[in-house]
Design brief:
Chain lengths: 127, 391
């Protein structure tokens, strides 16, 4: 409830809308947080002997939302301290890996479907 | 100075649109609006009106064209009737939501079926909630004046809303009547050059018509509601200035011989002229009846209506639109909603007449008023009914 109230207060009041609800500045889609439609989220296995991410970045191309970004492993939800379990992966906290921007990810699962190593798992969002 | 001429109302409307220097006319011909569009096409083809005439493939396209044209900053006009207006329906909401000042002449005609090309108000009443300003003309002169008024109000920077003004199909649109056609200099004095408050411009790009997500839609609709109710003073001022420039005065609600009236007939459109004839006759024979004419339907002029019926004991409300399965016809429902809960409110007696071109002669007004007087004398309120149906 608190979250809902906060979100509404971030939105413009009726008299702050442009005439005819026109969009009068560029890049406004950035302010439109559409990820809350999602019912499941993609989770990458960045390190695993057989089905780990090989950083091919095909997921970034297939993503219809363009919301898969390449970022350092340390900035993902992955716990970098667990890397010691897979020394053969050659990954470090600084390694660049694909990750979904959950502000925009709709959870369509196309990335998981197309991933050549099947390293992306769609995990249901907890309601 | 204007020139007094004998002219068909439709032709007079087209000439008035030309006097307003419309930039774009996008329209599809439909009976009984046809003469307006045909004459405008002629004026453009003959070089008398410097405008783009866009012959479209349907009314849906006509209104879509008008939205684009007005959004680009052009003074835009269209006209339609009945099925054509119904086909425009979904785009009408978009025009008002985008706040584009389109002007449309609606030549009122029944909706099919059965197929009818004749006059009633079913077409316009189906557009009641589209967010357009809606006015009614009773005669050819008023149709000309409402044309000028519509552009003036729609384009006012404090309004920026589309306006549809109504004239009854055939019984007004096709009548040849004496009309004072204003001259171009007068119209220029009344109607300033269109300066769009916002328009599509490649040098200053904006997006018009984006999706309204749930956190925005309510605010967008509130803004529209505020715009149309807030337009009332501009609408009235534009009529006041019409009196100054052309010498003809209009009001949102107009009364005729309501002093001392116990019953007031409530009419919209050309039927008001017949009602005046009836009121004159009835008053001579001592029937305490007056007439209240609704010129402005949207935004509904609540205060002016309440003021007009102050002291009246009963309203004989005429609806010219069937509303199957509802409690009342649209006009009666509006008025009952306005009056509900107020002290000393008049009784509302409803009649649905003049459907699909059925003539409403003077005697029918007498039947309605006698029936209303009977209610005042204690007879139970009759249910809303088609007065003219053959039982």
């Amino acid at each position: 409830m608190t979250q809902e109230v906060k979100r509404q207060s971030d939105q413009p009041r009726w008299h702050e809308l442009a005439l005819g609800t026109a969009i009068v500045f560029a890049g406004s889609a950035r302010a439109c947080k559409t990820g809350d439609w999602r019912s499941s989220r993609p989770v990458w296995r960045y390190a695993h002997e057989t089905t780990g991410c090989i950083q091919c970045a095909l997921c970034t191309i297939y993503c219809p939302e363009g919301c898969i970004v390449i970022r350092p492993l340390s900035e993902t939800a992955f716990d970098a301290s667990r890397l010691g379990a897979w020394p053969e992966s050659g990954l470090s906290a600084e390694s660049l890996v694909p990750d979904a921007d959950l502000v925009y990810c709709k959870g369509c699962g196309i990335c998981a479907k197309e991933c050549p190593t099947s390293c992306i798992e769609m995990v249901p969002e907890e309601m | 100075m204007g020139t007094r001429v004998g002219m068909e109302a439709s032709i007079a409307v087209a000439e008035a649109v030309a006097l307003c220097d419309a930039d774009v006319v996008a329209a599809y011909p439909i009976t009984p609006q046809t003469h307006i569009v045909e004459h405008l096409a002629e004026l453009v083809a003959d070089g008398e009106l410097d405008a783009e005439f866009i012959p479209v493939e349907s009314e849906h396209s006509a209104m879509s064209c008008c939205v684009g044209s007005a959004a680009a900053g052009a003074r835009t006009f269209t006209a339609t009737s009945s099925q054509g207006l119904a086909l425009m329906h979904e785009i009408l909401y978009i025009a008002s939501a985008l706040r584009v000042p389109i002007v449309m002449s609606v030549v009122d005609r029944a909706l099919s079926g059965p197929i009818s090309i004749w006059n009633d108000h079913a077409d316009i009443m189906a557009q009641r909630d589209t967010g357009w300003i809606q006015t009614f003309a009773e005669n050819a002169q008023e149709a000309v004046d409402m044309t000028l008024h519509a552009f003036r109000v729609a384009e006012d920077p404090a309004v920026c809303l589309p306006v549809m003004y109504n004239l009854d199909g055939f019984i007004l649109s096709h009548m040849i009547e004496p009309v004072v056609m204003p001259d171009h200099a007068e119209v220029e004095r009344y109607l300033p050059t269109f300066k769009p408050a916002q328009r599509l411009d490649v040098d200053h790009p904006i997006s018009m018509g984006p999706v309204g997500i749930p956190p925005i839609y309510t605010e967008a609709k509130h803004a529209l509601q505020n715009a149309i109710t807030g337009a009332l003073p501009v609408i009235e001022k534009a009529w006041d200035e019409m009196a100054e420039v052309f010498g003809r005065r209009y009001h949102p609600i107009e009364t005729y011989r309501t002093d001392g009236a116990e019953v007031a007939l409530v009419t919209m459109g050309s039927i008001g002229e017949t009602a005046m004839t009836y009121v004159d006759q009835a008053r001579e024979s001592g029937v305490p009846v007056g007439l209240v004419r609704v010129r402005l339907w949207r935004p509904f002029p609540q205060a002016a209506f309440l003021d007009a019926v102050k002291g009246v004991k009963a309203l004989a409300v005429i609806d010219r639109c069937p509303s199957p399965g509802s409690v009342s016809g649209p006009v009666a429902a509006e008025l009952k909603g306005l009056l509900y809960g107020r002290s000393q409110q008049p009784r509302v007696v409803e009649f649905q007449v003049g459907l699909g071109g059925r003539d409403v002669p003077v005697q029918d007004f007498d039947r309605m008023v006698q029936s209303t007087l009977a209610v005042l004398a204690g007879r139970p309120l009759p249910p809303p009914r088609f007065l003219q149906v053959r039982e």
